[in-house]
Amino acid sequence: MVFNIFCEMGDLARNTKQIGAVIRRARKKLGITQKELGEKVGIWQVTVSLIENGESGARIDTLLSILAALDLEFQIVPRSRDLHADIERNF
Question: What does the pLDDT look like over 71-83, one tens digit per residue?
Answer without folding.
Answer: 998 887 787 765 5
